[in-house]
Specification:
Layout: E1 22-24, H1 25-30, H2 35-44, E2 48-51, E3 54-56, H3 62-70, E4 72-74, H4 76-82, E5 96-98, H5 124-131, H6 137-151, H7 155-162, H8 168-171, H9 184-195, E6 201-202, E7 205-206, E8 210-211, E9 214-216, E10 219-223, H10 226-229, H11 232-247, E11 251-255, H12 257-262, H13 264-275
Parallel strand pairs: 10-11
Antiparallel strand pairs: 1-3, 2-3, 4-5, 6-9, 7-8, 9-10
Helix pairs in contact: 4-5, 6-9
Length: about 280
């Protein structure tokens, strides 16, 4: 429903996309309000005017409000995290992309020059373009994998959507993306092992076991998330699968989130102990 003068707490129509409770005047008008109802809502407390042409409801996202007050939109890593994509640790600062007419050193920006800010939170695609310049290559590929897996889009489609917002070197990172990846930790293990020359098979179907995350020869690597460990069903199913794999001649290495992100040298040493004597070769 539209803002009504008699109802100071009236809510706006739910707009398409991520509804943060922060809207531009244009969005409110498109949703059915008028300049008069907007003015009355501000006067009655149903809306808060943040800056020229920007308004927030009482239940608006505090991060979206902060981004608009800074003169831009929540973007980059911050937007991707709020939208539910996998983000590696180490990116806790707040990321804002500035409007075309307000550029500051601390603002995130894509390649190809500044773009207008039309919403309080950038689209996942624009946030990805900005994140390419704030994240390490490895971490960016992992979040791009997360985007591809959740949306079902192909690497070619994402490359076309990002267009000139990525520089040629950053665009080449898309060649290393894989939408089959089921988690960020799986993406990172794949990238690290391939960079060392290992032949890594992604999401192979193993007879008697089912689908696994990664395979090197007959070494099966499972990358468990934090949430995965919380399910008793998953715990029991994993042990059944591991037992079946061993009976059928496969080796299984199950890695935790902390193993991969905070103890990788030890993990790699163990993988090398297995692959060094060629125990992982399929005969």
């Amino acid at each position: 429903m539209r803002f009504a003068a008699a109802d100071p707490v009236a809510a706006p129509v739910r707009l398409i996309g991520m509804d943060t409770g922060v809207y531009t005047r244009k969005q409110l008008l498109q949703a059915g309000d008028s300049d008069r109802t907007i003015r009355l809502a501000v006067a009655n407390g149903g809306l808060r005017r943040l800056r020229h042409g920007w308004y927030a409801t009482g239940a608006a996202s505090s991060q979206a409000i902060e981004a608009v007050l800074r003169g831009g939109a929540m973007s980059c890593v911050s937007a991707l995290r709020q939208q539910g994509f996998w983000i590696a640790p180490g990116y806790e600062s707040f990321h804002v992309r500035g409007s075309k007419h307000l550029q500051r050193a601390e603002f995130c920006r894509p390649a190809g020059g500044p773009l207008p800010v039309t919403a309080a939170v950038d689209s996942p695609e624009l946030a990805l373009a900005c994140a390419a310049y704030c994240m390490s290559d490895e971490d960016w590929i992992a979040v791009a994998d997360s985007y591809l897996n959740r949306t079902g889009r192909s690497v070619r489609q994402l490359r076309e959507m990002l267009g000139e917002t990525l520089s040629p070197p950053k665009r080449r990172l898309l060649r290393r993306c894989d939408r089959r990846s089921q988690s960020g930790t799986e993406s990172i293990v794949r990238l690290r092992l391939r960079s060392l020359g290992y032949t890594v098979v992604v999401q192979p179907q193993i007879p008697g076991v089912g689908r696994v995350d990664l395979r090197i020869g007959r070494l099966l690597i499972e990358c468990d998330s934090k949430q995965h460990h919380m399910s008793l069903h998953n715990y029991r199913n994993d042990r059944r699968r591991d037992r079946s794999a061993l009976v059928n001649g496969w080796l299984t290495m199950r890695l935790t989130y902390d193993d991969i992100l905070f103890d990788w040298p030890a993990v790699l040493a163990d993988i090398r102990r297995i692959t060094g004597p060629r125990r992982h070769r399929i005969r």
